[in-house]
Amino acid sequence: MNDLKTNLLRVLEQNHKIGTDTLATMFNITEEKVKETVRELEEEKIILGYVTLIDWEKTGNNNNVIAIIDVKVTPQRDVGFDMIAERICRFPEVKSVYLMSGGYDLSVVIEGASMKKVAFFVAEKLATLENVQSTATHFLLKKYKKDGVIFGEEKKDHRLVVSP
Q1: Which residues constitute the domain of residue 100?
Q2: What is the pLDDT of residues 15-55, one digit of tens each?
């Protein structure tokens, strides 16, 4: 991948709303070249989507429970963990699935309306899948930082006051 694409990806990862005019100025290229490069990155499935990070606590609409579930799996011949991971990805409650090193094989992030619903998901859908040996559920209590953004941090002016 060329330097332009790599640098463009780094900037867009920090702020996907930055304008093509600003990007063109930053990289000393035309706006059309920026649009063309972004289109190529989307077609190549390098850019998979654009996400808005929301602090739901501040909206008063945050009633959902988030859980991280460690899953121990028996890998299958010729496909390893891929087939079971792809199957887990298809559940609508599942937000993320990661292959992990350590004591568990997969880490699954899910969201549910209550702890009870999360528990039922684990007991009735996840733990019953073939090749799932065991699970360990951890409930998220508070978000401090996500994707490099600190939650609840007030923008304070730390400059010294200068008076005449």
Answers
A1: 63-142
A2: 889 999 999 999 999 999 999 999 999 999 999 998 888 88
Alpha helices in 44-136 (DSSP H): 82-89, 115-120
Rounded-to-integer distance, Cα 62 and Cα 77, Å: 42
**Judgement on whether residues 79 and 9 belong to the same structural domain of the protein:** no
Give me the CATH number covering residue 85: 3.30.70.920
d(CA 23, CA 33): 10
- Placement of tokens 């298809």 in the chain: 90
Contact present, 80 and 98 (Cβ < 8 Å): no
Alpha-carbon gap, residue 55 to 51, rounded angstroms? 13
73 DSSP β-pair partners? 132
pTM: 0.79
